[in-house]
Specification:
The structure holds 2 protein chains of 2 kinds. Helices cover 57% and strands 11% of the residues of chain A. By secondary structure, chain A is α+β, with helices and mostly antiparallel strands. Among the domains of chain A are: 125 residues, Orthogonal Bundle (Butyryl-Coa Dehydrogenase, subunit A, domain 1), CATH 1.10.540.10; 142 residues, Butyryl-CoA Dehydrogenase, subunit A, domain 2 (Beta Barrel), CATH 2.40.110.20; 150 residues. In chain A, the strands form 3 sheets. In chain A, strands 3, 4, 5, 6, 7, 10 and 11 form a 7-stranded mixed beta sheet that branches. In chain A, strands 1-2 form a two-stranded antiparallel ribbon. In chain A, helix 8 packs antiparallel against helix 9 and helix 8 packs across helix 16. The longest helix of chain A is centred in the middle third of the chain and has 37 residues. The relative contact order of chain A is 0.09. By secondary structure, chain B is of the alpha/beta class. In chain B, 46% of the residues lie in helices and 13% in strands. In chain B, strand 4, helix 4 and strand 5 form a beta-alpha-beta unit. The model of chain B has no long low-confidence stretch (mean pLDDT 95). The chains are: A alpha+beta, B alpha/beta. Chains A and B meet through helix 13 and helix 14 of A and helix 22 and helix 32 of B.
Chain lengths: 596, 770
């Protein structure tokens, strides 16, 4: 039975106790960003998510979006919910104050995004894409475009999309065929078909602004010939109201496994009036501004689903009475013990909890680096933060979404047949989670990004931003017996990661396919070590807090116990991953194609 | 005839002066004469001016200051009588037959009997030069054609007449081979000989085709450069270098001398843009600029290129071409780059095939001439073999281009083959003939064809080179030193001790070793693999020390760059036999590090025992500090001796091909009654000296000569060289100095500014001055 309470206590732990979010206000431009501001924002977000979005999650899934004559209708209640959401200021939460935004730091937004994804992933996609579109427009658009579109996008009366995929062109965007031809007035006429466009058409906003990849007539072939264009559904009037309908229409919506309340559209552009964003042929660069941000956000979708699935499973496991504990009845007064007494049920619940809490800590660490990169005036710190975000983006995307799916599956398993039927909402999480492993670059592509681009860049400089803090942590805590329960396993896994990294760098240089063959296992190994580092740090903080007698012993003890579970029962997977990586890829590379 | 003990060069232009400098580099006194300039006070002004200019030039024509002192300047009016002392008289005056002949008459009047006279002409036939000068002169005369710059270009083309005395030829050839280090290629008395006949044809064809096929200068040079195995200047860059004004003269003399149906005639064509450039003084680097120029208008320096399409200068652009790595794929690809490459190379390679036997007796001479005279990685026949003669002929036929006789003779067979371990070449007679190396030449390349290595891994190999000597070869990229090399060295040390008398460390790469593999080290730093890095240092120290005290002699035989770790291994050898063109140095400070494989230790020991310095521990420490902190690199083996990278008894070999044989001989000589060296002891001045060196570095910093991180690095170096917390009353052992190297290297390796330096040099190839 699905249930959701925003994990505010754990979020505050991550934000203040683990990552020192209070220190953000020392960065230029973030002077006003203090816990006094963050706390009410998080509480308000929790309220909207629990009370407005979560109740629409299952009905939205049942009803789905409706398509008729080019018009898309979102499920019942979405329009009202969006209105509440927008009026509460949630569409403008991270946007630049220059355009009416609130400029909330990324580390806080990471937590809010998680809540939205837990409560109603389909709903979250509508405003979520607008955030990404705003980033691309601010970074690359002309002042005129920014002035015309940003305020509306920020206040949420208009929404945004990212139009990349075409029927024959997915991961390889160099194959893009959509064309843009210059008009005399500096605008362009854009024609072509885009598919899989989330929020491409809907009834939540008065206008939809599409960000479209297309080719100019003189474009060089391949990826170097792609430009980014802005195409509004309605051409804005001089007074800023939506005017004439532009040449873009929705041809169909997809019928899909999950996120059914999110409209996934086929968009037809027919000589639509378009504006160039950024330089000609440099569209991929502009798009990647948006995409990197999106990849981190998709990671948070996995985290959100892991959390909500865990909550549902725990509630059920406490109530469901079946059989007796293996060591004798624990609740002799009841007809049977609740299933939570069983080690195997606990294994699943703790796996889910360790995944959610670990990812929350790691996601916030990366979110903090995004803030530092954006605001610091120290070039060294900026470079380090940028290196770190670049390195961790594919890991957050793939690791978190894999965990989202694995955890949602555990959620079904804990509930048995009741998890499998639609009534309790647990199977929806499995279906919703599945897409996050696929879009914004499949998790296989993320792994290739990690080994192919991020590992070798600048002779491995990106790696320094992770390996040095971890090595330093291990070394400085090596003589702390209270922590050794956490630091020793971390050390062991870290050494495996170092060796695997060296191995991939070495063989990958000579035979790139070897690196490709190791990529997915390597990403998981890296992710596990990153989680272990977060768990060791969380344990250190918790031990200290227990000493300080803050009166929250239960919380910290549970933290330590979950961390211990992670170290004992999850982290050893690094041994198997390490063995796989070191075995090399010849079994795959040399397998005859005809034999498949 | 007797050995050539004294030489004269007449004509102190670029070539004459360069030849004189190089004779001096061989340790042979040389007279350099030129005319007396009109109305000059100093009658030797031209020759003296040329010597002075060469002492400042870079790349340096002289290998050492001592060499410069061996050149005696003079003039052709007052000093001609001095030719009577000279065994070889080289004429390098203006390319005018009457001027040369008049000079020969005056030379002939004073020179001693049995002396040899040669001309450095590149265009005038030998028959014309000696005509009417009498039989004795003709018997003592030949053409010796050097390439520019004479010190660095290893080709010497020699042309003789039927009258030339065989012993005169032999004397010059021996001198050129052993003393000047040249590879002699015999040419027939035909215009342009081999190198320029083919080289200028190639250049001209490449220029004309660039115009015809609509390429820009950057595009043509991107194709006709590195991907083809040619120098990266390409063709237009090379023309800028040699001077555009030279070309009309060469063309005039070549077209006049060659038959009407020679392809050269068709290749030469008037190009209005080049005529205009010459008229406006754009003759290349020596003029206002050429196809490339540096535009300083408006303060900033802007690199510009002359557009072949518009005829105007515009900012330099990077060529946006898709060029495959493989030569055959390049010539076969139907792209702008591919069509251009084929148009130029089809003609050039065909023309090469026409030159045998007209100009050269065999194909190997043509290949050698182009490799050593034009710095091509491969000669034309080697390139044809890469394409396959069958493929090449078929493509020529398909395009309606003439197929030279020699290619018909090949009939699909390769020009070179290996038969029973011997390299053979195809002759014009259609048969294969062994390629015979000159007497005493020993090449690893040849040995490798006949046997398997004794030991081998991904970065090194050990070879049996006969007579109980083993050769350790680096095979890694740029011969950088990594863990594999250390591991194989350790193994080799054991194996040689058991089965051999001596070991030579030698390879045939362009660089002996560029030093430690910094890419691997930086990666290890980035992933915080500190134990691996510690092991890298301690293992290197142990392996090098193992070499030094091994029960057999080790001779290092460098050629080209030997830097950092590549220098340190040489410092641990018992002796060196260095190629004259060896560039040795401890350059670690440039990347923010210090030598830690015993380099500091060995240099301290050398300067304190062999350096001619004032007494006490400080002078040696200061000298080594100066050398290492400024990353001094010796610009020749001779200079390396002055810097004690070579010891006084170490040998220098002028001819690259004779290096291994000389090193082997040295190793065998040492192997008689070999006793490993005694471990040295060190008395070092301690902290006060470190402070003094730190103050010196500070003053450099204040004058803007040292950066902030230079101070950190040199300060750390000073700690090592001064012996840490020792003082003059104590004696340190090798292991003490090695421990200092280890700990201070570690410290620097953790420094972010050092890491930034390493990353920058690896990514850009340029040092970072942070």
């Amino acid at each position: 039975m699905a249930t959701y309470k925003a994990p505010l206590r754990d979020m505050r732990f991550v934000l203040y106790e683990l990552h020192d979010g209070a220190a953000l206000s020392s960065l230029p431009g973030l002077e006003d960003m203090t816990p006094e501001l963050f706390d009410p924002v998080l509480e308000e977000a929790a309220k909207v998510c629990e009370e407005v979005l979560f109740p629409l999650n299952r009905s939205g899934d049942e009803e789905g979006c409706q398509f008729e004559n080019g018009v898309v209708r979102t499920p019942k209640g979405f329009i009202e919910a969006y209105k509440t959401f927008r009026e509460g200021g949630w569409t403008s939460i991270t946007a630049d104050p220059a355009y009416g935004g609130q400029g909330i730091p990324n580390i806080v937004n990471v937590l809010i995004t998680e809540m939205i994804c837990s409560a109603n992933l389909s709903f979250g996609l509508y405003p979520g894409l607008t955030q990404g579109a705003c980033k691309a427009l601010v970074a690359h658009g002309s002042d005129e475009l920014k002035e015309r579109y940003m305020p509306k996008l920020v206040e949420g009366t208009w929404s945004g999309t990212m139009c990349l995929t075409e029927p024959h062109c997915g991961t390889d965007l160099g194959l893009c065929r959509t064309k843009a031809v210059p008009n005399d007035d500096g605008t362009y006429r854009l024609s072509g078909t885009k598919i899989f466009i989330s929020a491409g058409e809907h009834d939540l906003t008065e206008n939809i602004i599409h960000f479209v990849l297309a080719r100019l007539p003189d474009a060089p072939p391949g990826i170097k010939g792609i430009s980014l264009f802005l195409v509004p559904k309605f051409l804005p009037n001089a007074d800023g109201t939506p005017g004439k309908r532009n040449g873009v229409s929705c041809g169909a919506i997809e019928h899909k496994m999950g996120i059914k309340a999110s409209a996934t559209c086929v968009l037809n552009f027919d000589e639509a009036t378009a504006w160039l964003v950024g330089s000609p042929h440099k569209g991929m660069r502009s798009m990647f501004t948006m995409m990197n941000e999106e990849r981190l956000a998709v990671g948070l979708q996995g985290l959100g689903l892991a959390e909500v699935s865990y909550q549902g499973a725990v509630a059920y496991a406490r109530e469901r009475l079946q059989g007796r504990s293996l060591s004798g009845a624990k609740y002799p007064d009841k007809p049977a013990d609740p299933i939570i007494v069983h080690p195997d049920v606990r294994r699943m619940l703790l796996s889910m909890r360790a995944a959610a809490e670990g990812c929350r800590a790691l996601g916030a660490w990366v979110g903090q680096a995004v803030d530092i990169a954006a605001h610091t005036d120290d070039p060294k710190a900026k470079q380090e933060a940028e290196d770190f975000v670049a390195l961790m983006t594919p890991i957050v995307k793939a690791l978190f979404t894999d965990y989202g799916f694995e955890t949602a599956n555990h959620g079904v398993q804990v509930m048995g047949g009741h998890g499998y039927i639609r009534e309790h909402g647990m199977e929806q999480y499995v279906r919703d989670a599945r897409i996050a492993q696929v879009y914004e670059g499949t998790n296989g592509v993320q792994a290739l990004d990690l080994v192919g681009r991020k590992l070798g860049a600048h002779m491995g400089r990106n790696l320094r931003s992770f390996f040095h803090p971890v090595a330093e942590f291990i070394q400085s805590r090596s003589d702390n017996p209270a922590l050794s329960r956490y630091v020793d396993p971390l050390t062991k896994a870290f050494v495996r990661l170092q060796q695997a990294t060296g191995q991939i760098a070495k063989v990958g240089l000579k035979r790139p396919e070897e690196a490709g063959a190791a990529a997915t296992e390597y990403l998981r190994l890296f992710g596990l070590v990153a989680l272990a580092y977060q768990w060791a740090r969380m344990a250190e903080v918790s031990l200290k807090k227990l000493e300080e007698k803050t009166g929250e012993d239960d919380f910290y003890r549970a933290k330590l116990a979950t961390g211990a579970f992670f170290m004992d029962r999850v982290l050893p997977q690094t041994g198997a991953l390490f063995s796989s990586i070191m075995a090399g890829g010849s079994t795959m590379i040399e397998f005859p194609e005809a034999a498949f | 005839m007797a050995e050539i003990a004294k030489v004269a060069v007449i004509g102190a232009g670029v070539m004459g002066a360069g030849i004189a400098a190089h004779v001096a580099n061989a340790g042979v006194p040389v007279l350099l004469l030129d005319i007396v300039p009109k109305g000059a006070d100093n009658r030797n002004a031209i020759a003296e001016g040329a010597i002075a200019k060469m002492q400042k030039a870079d790349p340096a024509p002289f290998m050492s200051k001592a060499a410069a002192r061996l050149v005696t300047p003079g003039n052709t009016e007052d000093d001609l009588a001095k030719l009577a002392d000279c065994d070889w008289i080289i004429e390098a005056v203006v390319e005018k037959l009457d001027v040369k002949q008049a000079l020969y008459r005056r030379i002939d009047a004073v020179r001693k009997a049995g002396s040899v006279v040669s001309s450095n002409t590149s265009t005038i036939p030998l028959a014309a030069l000696t005509k009417g000068l009498g039989e004795t002169f003709a018997r003592d005369f030949l053409i010796t054609h050097f390439f520019n710059p004479p010190r660095y270009m290893r080709l010497l083309e020699i042309v003789t007449s039927p009258q030339t005395r065989p012993d005169a030829l032999e004397a010059v050839e021996r001198f050129a081979d052993f003393k000047l280090g040249k590879s002699v290629v015999h040419c027939k008395d035909r215009p342009g000989f081999i190198g320029n006949r083919l080289g200028v044809y190639w250049l001209q064809t490449a220029v004309v085709e660039a115009f015809d096929l609509g390429l820009e200068v950057e595009e043509a040079d991107a194709v006709m450069g590195k991907p083809m195995g040619f120098p990266k200047t390409g063709v237009f860059g090379l023309l800028d270098l040699v001077g555009l004004d030279l070309m009309p003269h060469i063309h005039a003399s070549m077209t006049a001398a060659l038959p009407k149906n020679d392809p050269y005639q068709q290749a030469v064509r008037d190009l209005p843009l080049i005529d205009r450039m010459l008229a406006e003084g754009y003759t290349g680097r020596k003029g206002k600029g050429g196809f490339y120029r540096l535009n300083r208008d408006g303060g900033a320096k802007v690199k510009e290129t002359l557009s072949l399409k518009t005829g105007e200068y515009r900012p330099q652009q990077k060529a946006d071409l898709d060029i495959p790595k493989d030569i055959k794929a390049q010539l076969a690809s139907d792209t702008k780059a591919g069509r251009y490459a084929w148009a130029v190379m089809a003609r050039t390679l065909s023309y090469a095939a026409m030159l045998v036997p007209e100009v050269a007796d065999d194909i190997a001479s043509v290949d050698e001439a182009m490799r050593l005279g034009y710095a091509w990685k491969q000669g034309p026949f080697e390139m044809i073999d890469r394409l396959g003669t069958e493929w090449f002929v078929a493509r020529l036929e398909k395009d309606g281009l003439p197929v030279p006789e020699l290619l018909r003779t090949a009939a699909g067979r390769p020009f070179y083959r290996v038969e029973n371990g011997r390299r053979q070449m195809l002759g014009p007679d259609g048969a294969y003939h062994d390629i015979v190396r000159p007497d005493g030449v020993l090449l690893l390349e040849d040995i490798k064809r006949t046997r398997e290595p004794l030991l081998k891994n991904g970065s090194a190999a050990l070879w049996d080179i006969g007579d109980g000597v083993a050769c350790f070869e680096f095979t890694s990229k740029l011969n950088t030193i990594d863990a594999d090399i250390m591991a194989l060295l350790a193994k080799a040390t054991k194996l040689v001790a058991r089965d051999f008398k001596a070991m030579v460390i030698y390879n045939e790469g362009t660089a002996f070793s560029a030093g430690a593999n910094l890419g691997l080290a930086l990666f290890a730093v980035n992933i915080a693999a500190w134990p691996i890095l510690e092991q890298m240092i301690t293992e290197g120290q142990a392996v090098y020390k193992g070499l030094k005290y091994a029960p057999f002699p080790v001779v290092g035989a460098p050629s080209g760059l030997a830097l950092g770790g590549g220098c340190e291994i040489l410092l641990h050898c018992d002796a060196l036999q260095a190629h004259a063109e060896s560039y040795i140095g401890l350059v670690e400070c440039g990347v923010g590090l210090i030598p830690a494989w015993g380099g500091c230790k060995e240099m301290l020991h050398r300067w304190s025992t062999l350096g001619k310095l004032p007494k006490g521990p400080m002078p040696a420490v200061a000298k080594v500090f100066e050398m290492i902190s400024t990353a001094t690199v010796a610009k020749s083996a001779a200079e390396a001796k002055e810097l004690l990278f070579l010891k006084p008894n170490d040998g220098i070999t002028m001819n690259r091909y004779r290096l291994l044989a000389d090193a082997k001989a040295k190793a065998l000589e040492l192997a008689r009654d070999y006793v490993p060296p005694q471990e040295p002891e060190f008395v070092l001045p301690g902290e006060s000296a470190a402070v003094a060196m730190g103050l010196a570095a500070e003053s450099f910093h204040r004058r803007g000569l040292a950066t902030k991180h230079d101070l950190v690095v040199s300060g750390t170096l000073a700690e090592v060289l001064s012996g840490g917390d020792t003082d003059v009353t104590r004696t340190l052992r090798e292991s003490d100095v090695l421990a200092l190297e280890f700990s201070r290297f570690q410290k620097l390796l953790h420094h972010p500014d050092t890491l930034a330096r390493i990353e920058h040099v690896l990514e850009t190839g340029k040092p970072l001055r942070n």
